């Protein structure tokens, strides 16, 4: 098993425990991300009818100036009428629920992740990559999509202050992180002001469909033949340390 490339027989098999320890060292984590870029990791789950697919790459923190632009792009990708929903569920019928977007932690870099459960993981991976490639090439976001995404983001802000507890929690978070008290208002204005050109530039900086790392958890007997046809390095990822 393991990597199906040259020298695979002599390569140590990665484990979740080993990967966790490597994340404690930022330089080691960066090297691990580079090593994993473009690869598919297979977790064997015997007897599972569906496979769980997770596609990921390093993302940004909330402090990144591209955060508002990617927030808008997040809305373009997700939800009813979003590009992932339209392609993966409505058009291809590959999964009932699919998602993709950036998590933006306030103090460290997060991840871009996309994923779904499906009986055809290879086709799902190709469909998600097609959506992401389209954003970067022949199907950039339209102004109509951008306006709708901004309105959706603006409406969602209301729920950040839906209760006194949420208001206090947000104020405390701002104090701890050293953010200005009107940070929420500033961020909302940044989303309203972001341009189509800025959204496209942010997408080009932070979306790399061919280099994203993919983890598929499913019955190896069923999914390995599918994944082998993707033309990516295919590696086994044992669950045990």
Per CATH, what is the topology?
Cytochrome Bc1 Complex, Chain A, domain 1
Q: Which range does the strand content fall in?
A: 5-15%
**CATH architecture type:** 2-Layer Sandwich
Mind telling me the CATH superfamily name? Metalloenzyme, LuxS/M16 peptidase-like
Give the CATH class. Answer: Alpha Beta
User: How many strands, which pairing sense, and closed or not: the largest β-sheet?
Assistant: 6 strands, mixed
The parts where pLDDT drops under 50 for at least 5 residues are 1-22
Cross-sheet strand order for the largest sheet: 3-4-2-5-1-6
Total DSSP helices: 10
Brief characterization of the structure:
The protein is α/β, with parallel strands linked by helices and 241 residues long.
